[in-house]
Write a structure and sequence with these properties.
282 residues, alpha/beta, disordered N terminus, binds adenosine-2'-5'-diphosphate, FNR_nucleotide-bd, Riboflavin_synthase-like_b-brl, ferredoxin--NADP(+) reductase, FAD
Length: 282
């Protein structure tokens, strides 16, 4: 008797969600024929740490069943944790299952967003340090777009060096505009401190089109040119912290280089000197 009453009273059947988590697109901007960014509404329940990612996507028709189903991919949240909306920065892949469709979204359209943020590019995964390096290629800039607008970044570090390597100059525009905008951002200057942006050193490079600084960041570090340009010593575990986000080959190569400087990889549960994440491509 006891058993029966306990079971029925303590374990009510969980309510089943019939509809997926839908958000509305509020802005779209196309940066090149390969890149776009967009903003959407933020679920009231979503709390995240700047630098984390979520699963987002669209409802698509399942060829087998003929039913609608969500097609989702992991996307770094490019907006900071305090923003009322969410921002994403995406590549367009012509035959990519998701981005071939997602690139056509317009203001007012609905996207699916699972409000379960995760990720390793978070301040919690790093030990205290003096200087932080953000290393990005392509759309790997996205989590840094979040972290560059996060007050904690400036509380924790005296200097922030952001390197961004892209094939072409136009692919740098999203990041360049965002960084330039920090200067004019009255709210951030008030909240973080007037002139907080002076802590940022921006080091953009291109590999396949002429620009003021050519070459892969990895090669420029190996030759010492990047350190000379920036007027700093090579990375040192006593002072430097780093976050890496780019294509897989870049992540692996840079990870090995950082280990060579004596930095060790951290995690949420075991903070150390650097963290790495791959950009999620379609
Ligand atoms: P490259 O043009 O020499 O391949 P992608 O668009 O293919 O994701 O690449 C983005 C940028 O990352 C490009 O400028 C590319 O240079 C660069 N890149 C690719 N692999 C590496 C690597 N292993 N180390 C450094 N940069 C890389």
């Amino acid at each position: 008797m006891t058993e029966m009453t306990t079971v029925t009273a303590a374990a009510p059947a969980p309510a089943k969600k019939a509809v997926p988590d839908v958000q509305t697109v509020t802005a779209v901007r196309h940066w090149t024929d390969r890149l776009f960014s967009f903003r959407c509404t933020r679920p009231a329940s979503l709390r995240f740490r700047s630098g984390e990612f979520v699963m987002i996507g669209l409802m698509v028709n399942d060829a087998k069943t003929g039913r609608e189903k969500p097609l989702l991919r992991a996307y770094s949240i490019a907006s900071p944790s305090w923003d009322e909306e969410l921002e994403f920065y995406s590549i367009k892949v012509e035959d990519g299952p998701l981005t071939s469709r997602l690139q056509h979204i317009e203001v007012g359209d609905e996207i699916v967003l699972r409000p379960k943020p995760v990720g390793t590019l978070v301040h919690d995964a790093l030990l205290p340090g003096k200087r932080i390096w953000f290393f990005a290629t392509g759309t790997g800039f996205a989590p840094f777009a979040s972290l560059l607008r996060e007050p904690q970044t400036y509380e924790d570090y005296d200097e922030i060096i952001i390197t961004h390597t892209c094939r072409e100059a136009a692919e740098l525009h999203y990041g360049a505009e965002l960084i330039a905008g920090l200067k004019e951002d009255a709210l951030l200057n008030e909240v973080i401190g007037e002139g907080f942006w002076k802590k940022i050193r921006y080091y953009p490079t291109t590999t396949r089109e002429q620009s003021p600084k050519m070459g892969r960041i990895t090669d420029l570090m190996r030759s010492g040119e990047a350190f000379t340009d920036l007027g700093v010593q090579p990375l040192d575990p006593a002072a430097d912290r780093a976050m890496i986000c780019g294509n897989l080959a870049f992540n692996l190569e840079l990870k090995e280089m950082l280990e060579g400087y004596g930095l060790e990889e951290g995690a949420n549960s075991d903070p150390k000197h650097y963290v790495v994440e791959k950009a999620f491509l379609d």
